[in-house]
Amino acid sequence: MPTVDRNIRENTLLAKLTKAARDKKFQRFSEDSYKWFQTRVKFLGNAKSWAAILADSAATGSIKTVGTIEIGKMYAFMYLAKWRDELPYWDAFPLIFVVGPAPKGFYGINLHYLPNTIRARLMDKLLDISNNKRFDKTTKLQLSYQLLKATESLSEFKPCFKHYLNDQVQTSMMEIPANKWETVLFLPFQKFMKASSAKVWRESKKKI
After folding, report:
1. I need a labelling partner for 141 at 20 to 30 A (CA). Which of 69, 109, 158, 172 fits?
2. Residue 161 class from Cβ within 10 Å (0-12 exposed, 13-18 middle, 19+ buried)?
3. What is the DSSP letter of 84?
4. Which candidate, 105, 85, 72, places its Cα nearest to that of 175?
5. What is the pLDDT of residues 27-38, one digit of tens each?
6. Does pTM surpass 0.85?
7. Is 16 helix (H, G, I), strand (E, B) or coil?
8. Where are the domains of the chain?
């Protein structure tokens, strides 16, 4: 039976995830957040359904879609990789923190490229560089590629750092509110093409 590392702070995501493993169940860390997201991502890959859900949610005010993205905030969207034939695998439904602008697009950390335990570890470190701890509409990570590259303790970002092209984004960008980050982070809605999640995660571990 897995045991809890006593050196892990009890209030970290990694501690919560470790406890869930010890208890032999993956708990939904926030029931309301889980239901909030589940109702909007139940189609997983149907662009028409995605558009319909976004339109309905935007009309009711229960979700925010944006035309302009901000560095340090979390977004989900559907994506069609331009070089998909050459890539060994890619995620058609990224969950990212925006890092900054890039040629014809933007850079992001796609958290789906990490298995849950490493994902939790990286998230704990990223929260340490948030601009505040209110977890409201003002909260965002203070990210830059220079910071990520220069900070040895953030090495988990390496397999997650991706260049996304604006023209290849297939849907509106769904902004994930900061008070939902913790739960959405662990929901299994990645959509890897040409490889299983297990294979992607094995490859990612080699790059850290």
Report:
1. 172
2. middle
3. T
4. 72
5. 444 455 455 555
6. no
7. helix
8. 13-207
- Single-letter amino acid, residue 198: A
Which pLDDT belongs to residue 49?
54
Q: Which two tokens stand for residue 151?
A: 């900070």
Token digits of residue 119: 């994902």
Nearest to 149 by CA among 112, 107, 120, 119: 107
How far apart (Å, rounded) are the C-alpha atoms in residues 159 and 208?
A: 7
Cβ atoms 185, 124 nearer than 8 A:
no
Round the average pLDDT of the chain to a whole number and report it: 80
Structure tokens at 24: 């032999």
Place of tokens 């995660």: 201
How many whole angstroms separate alpha carbon 199 and alpha carbon 192? 10
Residue 181 tokens, joined: 């980050």
